[in-house]
Design goal:
The complex is a heterodimer of chains A (563) and B (337).
Chain A: H1 4-20, H2 32-40, E1 51-56, H3 71-80, E2 85-88, E3 91-94, E4 102-103, E5 109-113, H4 128-139, H5 150-153, H6 159-162, E6 178-182, E7 185-189, H7 197-200, H8 211-217, E8 234-240, E9 244-249, E10 263-268, H9 272-280, E11 286-289, H10 292-297, E12 303-316, H11 327-336, H12 339-347, E13 352-353, H13 371-374, H14 384-398, E14 403-410, H15 413-426, E15 432-439, H16 441-450, E16 455-456, E17 460-461, H17 469-472, H18 489-499, H19 505-522, E18 525-537, E19 541-542, E20 545-546, E21 553-554, E22 559-560
Parallel strand pairs in A: 1-10, 14-15, 14-16
Antiparallel strand pairs in A: 2-3, 4-5, 5-7, 6-7, 8-9, 9-10, 11-18, 12-16, 12-17, 12-18, 13-18, 19-22, 20-21
Chain B: H1 2-5, H2 33-43, H3 45-63, E1 100-101, E2 104-105, H4 106-109, H5 127-163, H6 165-180, H7 183-193, H8 198-225, H9 228-235, H10 240-276, H11 288-297, H12 304-331
Helix pairs in contact in B: 2-12, 3-5, 3-12, 5-6, 5-8, 5-10, 5-11, 5-12, 7-8, 8-10, 10-11, 10-12, 11-12
Classes of the chains: A alpha+beta (563), B mainly alpha (337).
């Protein structure tokens, strides 16, 4: 489970970054059906070329599905590759898996049948062995995948031992609980029942790889259009590093008849105002907005916004600052920060104040209700008077009057404004001085992992799979992400119990709800806001979807009309 | 016509009284080097205007922040992005001080009662206070970094030039190595080791800033020390310290002053550049560079955020350069009539 901490945060922050910076965002919550309806009116005709152009702030870091860690990479990989499942409209649905898998009664064995018409772009069929190879490669310590913790998180048999250097099974990937029964039948054995297992199958790290091809490419694998095979909706046809890349529809994809966009070009443009200009001159079809740009365009009919599922939060390091051990201090800090003001006046997008840790509109329980319909919708509120009262009591208990804390954040211009705002809010507590320390992202991660910070405020957490556990298991006392010295045995117990209750979803759900309550009563971390975004989409492009799970900008079923 | 016919007679002349002592009398007023230089400087209108503007900016940097009650980090999100408004000018709509933005009265919309002379930024902080405090920081960095330049550069160049020989060879090789490393790389490395802030920036500028000065001084000293009066002084047994104090320093002073006048604006500019690329002051403190960088982010929507700090930094740089130019003309003995 090592490395879980930092790399999940990475994905998280990249996700946030893409909200801040990237232009690659899709359309609100409307699905492709609305596009079809419009075309049915007969008012608009489909354009001759079903092509789409977008711009993003960042080049693709990697296309190797075992090594990718960030949102941009995962987006491209999910366009080029297909796995057993894929997300459509934030729901995991079978993709290469021919229907739902057979699940054994104890919930520990999954048997997938792979579609007969699933093929690689070189003509090879996609076989169960391709999955076995990919998963073993991902788990293999030699691959040095930074996302390999996802395999033990899925509770695949022996995965934790294979990744644990102290175990006898270290590096023995043939012991991994995945087996090709025949060419088209894949059997997965789990250590314990995992209710969210199928949703994890939509995660790009679990996508198959063609062993023959990957090994023939060696170090060149996934470095360019000639060095990667496609089995998904699109093929990579060109990739000019730092400039642009092009995706063309893969006619051999089993569902190709439903893929409507034939060609997508994605340009790398760092500056947001340049991207907005490109949008205004019809060079690109969609652009993500932030801050002032939102004010400028929010009345436009092309404007829409969406709520994502990552949560920005503050980490208070109890190991470095003894005062943070006092729950009153943590509560005072949480209540003194005006999140709503921040969102309304500075951020201006669809973010909402997070007075909870598991995001809303993220996952529904066995009863079909959203997590926060069962759990309270808010555990604390913005209340400066109450905060100051708590603070005065806390100061008396601590017997100290002056506090200087360091607020560590990343060095993006946007995070600077955020840090200045939050620091100023916390300084309303009498006697507190906050110093802002901006660190480059890698340094930030490094110090976060080592626990070398006082207040950590540069990260947001995004989910890896559709279950509250991806948020809640972070703060158990043994989780490497918990570098701030928080320990509550009751919380640890609840999480452990929930983890072992895979066969009883309702009971497990109750435990998770209880766990969040314990966490928030302790105010172990300070949730700030659930990240939202805003974007413009050209009126002649319909069905471009923003997803909070899976491909962030999903144009697989989009349509371009004449304009 | 008649004059031509008049004869010049002897009695028209009177013998002049020749007083030998008078030929020694100095008729022209005695002008010292500095007085002369100052006279010449005064004649240069551009330089005087530059000096006055610099003076005003310095005064504003000292007292400007106390003109209103706001501090450098007094945020209020209820008054974000308010355009500049000055009470008695608020009805003159062709001036950018009426509190209107894109035809809308932002002050009325946001119910802001106070006037912000230079507007507010996106956290609702008063730009007036931030700009003058920023100017103060920029000037401070410029002056201190230049002082460091001056001390190290003059000493290094002077020693190298005056003593010559092995000392010169070694010092010049060190100089060449330092000159070979791009300044920006050195600065970035330094900032990575230390925390960003005033001290780091001054150090970063000071580390390499003195190179130009040392080269100039060395050249000057090399030239001076081969002049006959220095040789004469040496022959008469003058010590090194006396030669340095009496001959070297006064004769290089003009050069030093002129070069200093040019390195102040370049230090200010370098700080602004560092802040602009994100290596500068740590928030919420501000320097002109930080303010311009923040203004630049929203220049399409709120141009005033970048305009005023930009204007001040331009004025500072131009005036320092014009004034430095004037000083050089005034102090350079070759221009002396």
């Amino acid at each position: 489970m090592r490395g879980k901490a930092k790399w999940s945060v990475l994905v998280a922050i990249m996700l946030v970054m893409s909200m801040f910076l990237a232009a690659c965002s899709g359309g609100g919550k409307d699905d492709s059906a609305s596009g079809d309806k419009k075309s049915g009116d007969g008012k608009q005709e489909l354009a001759d070329k079903q092509e789409i152009t977008m711009a993003t702030s960042q080049d693709i870091p990697t296309l190797d599905s075992s090594k990718a860690t960030d949102a941009t990479s995962f987006d491209q990989i999910q366009r080029i590759h297909s796995g057993l499942y894929t997300y459509y409209n934030n729901k995991a649905v079978p993709d290469l898996s021919d229907g739902e898998p057979k699940v054994s009664e104890d919930g520990k064995t999954y048997t997938f049948t792979i579609r007969d018409d699933a093929n690689w772009s070189n003509g090879d069929p996609v076989t169960a062995a391709d999955f076995v190879y990919a998963w073993r490669r991902l788990t293999d310590p030699k691959t040095k995948s930074q996302y390999n913790y996802i395999v033990p998180t899925a509770h695949i048999k022996n995965a934790d031992k294979i990744e644990d250097p102290d175990s006898d099974l270290y590096g023995k990937t043939d012991q991994l609980g995945v087996k090709a029964i025949d060419d088209k039948t894949l059997e997965v054995t789990l250590d314990k029942a995992t209710p969210y297992f199928t949703s994890m199958m939509a995660f790009a790290s679990f996508y198959p790889l063609n062993q023959k091809f990957v090994e023939s490419q060696g170090k060149q694998y996934a470095l360019g259009p000639d060095h990667i095979l496609s089995n998904g909706a699109y093929k990579l046809t060109s990739w000019k590093t730092g400039e642009s890349w092009t995706l063309e529809k893969n006619p051999d994809y089993w569902d190709a008849k439903n893929i409507t966009i034939d060609k997508a070009t994605i340009n790398v443009v760092k500056d947001l105002s340049t991207r907005v200009n490109m949008y205004n001159t019809d060079e690109i079809s969609t652009v993500g907005l932030s801050q002032d740009f939102i004010d400028e365009y929010k009345d436009s009919p092309e404007y829409n916004e969406f709520l994502d599922t990552s949560v920005g939060y503050l980490k208070l390091n109890e190991n470095k600052v003894p005062a943070f051990k006092n729950p009153k201090v943590r509560k005072a800090i949480a209540m003194i920060i005006d999140e709503q003001g921040y969102i309304d006046q500075i951020r201006k997008d669809a973010s909402v104040p997070a007075q909870y840790w598991v995001p809303k509109d993220f996952v529904s329980g066995p009863d079909g209700k959203d997590f926060h319909e069962t759990a309270p919708a808010s555990y604390f509120k913005y209340d400066p008077d109450e905060a100051k009262k708590l603070w005065a009591e806390a100061k008396k208990e601590l017997g100290q009057d002056k506090f200087t804390w360091e607020y560590m954040t990343t060095d993006e211009p946007q995070t600077k404004t955020v840090a200045e705002y939050f620091a100023n809010q916390i300084e309303q507590l009498d006697g507190v001085t906050i110093k802002i320390n901006q660190q480059p992202w890698n340094n930030y991660l490094d110090r976060d992992t080592k626990g070398d910070y006082e207040i950590g405020g540069g990260a947001a957490w995004g989910p890896d799979y559709q279950d509250p556990m991806t948020f809640l298991d972070l703060w158990t006392s043994t989780n490497p992400n918990n570098t701030m010295g928080y320990k509550n045995t009751e919380y640890d117990k609840l999480i452990k119990e929930a983890d072992n209750l895979g066969t009883d979803p309702q009971k497990r759900w109750d435990k998770l709800v209880q766990a969040e309550k314990v966490l928030m009563d302790d105010m172990a971390i300070i949730p700030q806001f659930q990240v939202g975004g805003a974007q413009l989409i050209k009126p002649y492009v319909k069905g471009l979807v923003h997803q909070s799970m899976g491909i962030a900008t999903d144009f697989r079923h989009a349509k371009v009309y004449k304009h | 016509m008649s004059g031509q016919n008049e004869l010049i007679t002897k009695d028209m002349f009177a013998p002049a009284e020749i007083d030998a002592s008078q030929s020694e009398e100095i008729r022209r007023e005695t002008v010292s080097y500095w007085k002369d230089a100052f006279r010449r400087l005064r004649k240069n209108k551009g330089a005087i205007a530059g000096a006055i503007i610099i003076f005003i900016i310095i005064i504003m940097a000292i007292i400007g922040p106390y003109f209103n009650k706001y501090g450098v980090d007094d945020q209020d999100i209820m008054r974000t992005n308010a355009p500049p408004k000055i009470g008695f000018l608020s009805n003159v709509h062709w001036l950018p001080f009426d509190g209107y933005e894109k035809g809308r009265d932002v002050y009325a919309e946001k119910k802001i009662t106070d006037n912000f002379w230079f507007g507010t930024d996106k956290l609702g902080r008063d730009q007036w206070t931030r700009i003058w405090l920023g100017t103060r920081v920029s000037l401070f960095i410029g002056v201190i970094a230049t002082l460091a330049d001056l001390i190290i550069g003059v000493a290094y160049g002077g020693i190298s030039g005056y003593f010559g020989g092995k000392v010169d060879t070694i010092l010049q090789r060190i100089y060449e190595i330092l000159v070979g490393i791009p300044q920006l790389i050195l600065v970035i490395l330094l900032i990575m080791i230390m925390n960003p802030g005033i001290t780091t920036i001054i150090l970063a500028i000071g580390v390499t800033g003195w190179l130009g000065m040392s080269r100039l001084i060395r050249g000057q000293v090399l030239q001076l020390k081969s002049l006959e009066y220095v040789l004469a002084a040496k022959t008469l047994g003058a010590s090194d310290s006396r030669i340095i104090a009496k001959h070297m320093v006064p004769n290089t002073l003009g050069l030093i002053i002129v070069h200093t006048m040019f390195s102040v604006p370049s230090a200010i500019f370098f700080e602004a550049f560092l802040s602009f690329i994100g290596l500068g002051m740590s928030p919420p403190k501000a320097s002109l560079g930080v303010l311009i960088q923040q203004g630049y982010e929203s220049i399409q929507f709120h141009p005033y955020l970048a305009l005023y700090p930009g204007l001040i930094i331009c004025l500072l740089l131009i005036c320092f350069n014009i004034f430095g130019d004037g000083l050089r003309d005034a102090l350079d003995p070759r221009l002396r009539k």
